[in-house]
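User: Let's play a game. I give you a shape written as tokens, and you guess the letters that built it. Ready? Here's round one.
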């Protein structure tokens, strides 16, 4: 039997930020700087920045309850043509992330039949090539994957 060797992810950076509103801007700027020369088009880089900012904002607000003393951890890795940004908070037990959240429906939201909130995961999922969410005890991690080259959802070449 032939075995295919899997590449080990190469860590590009790992850092933490205090859980304070506005720090999502620091996260997106640092991630953008890290990946700027890895082959993403400008449009795909902007989508990744949007997804990182939204996921970090969710981690700060929902996962860590805006408690500055509880850090959000961000790790950026690359495996071949995939860039993965993992954003981890400490809200695993208290604030479970919905596995399959209800798809936002603008008409239902305007009619009051659906909460006005709930756009975050939908937006993130549509900005990147793949999004996964895991909970390991106290920690939530959202994994954002963007392939270098190619196009993202709704993007034309």
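Assistant: Ready! My guess for every position:
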């Amino acid at each position: 039997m032939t075995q295919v060797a899997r590449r080990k992810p190469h860590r590009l950076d790992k850092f933490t930020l205090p859980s304070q509103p506005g720090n999502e801007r620091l996260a997106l700027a640092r991630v953008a700087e890290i990946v700027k020369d890895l082959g993403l088009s400008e449009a795909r880089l902007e989508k990744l920045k949007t997804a990182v900012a939204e996921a970090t904002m969710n981690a700060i607000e929902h996962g860590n309850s805006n408690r500055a003393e509880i850090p959000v951890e961000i790790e950026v890795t690359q495996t071949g043509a995939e860039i993965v940004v993992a954003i981890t908070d400490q809200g695993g037990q208290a604030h479970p992330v919905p596995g399959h959240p209800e798809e936002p429906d603008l008409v239902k939201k305007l009619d009051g039949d659906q909460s006005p909130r709930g756009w975050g995961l939908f937006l993130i999922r549509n900005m990147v090539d793949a999004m996964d969410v895991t909970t390991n005890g106290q920690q939530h991690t959202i994994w954002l994957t963007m392939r270098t080259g190619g196009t993202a959802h709704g993007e034309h070449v």
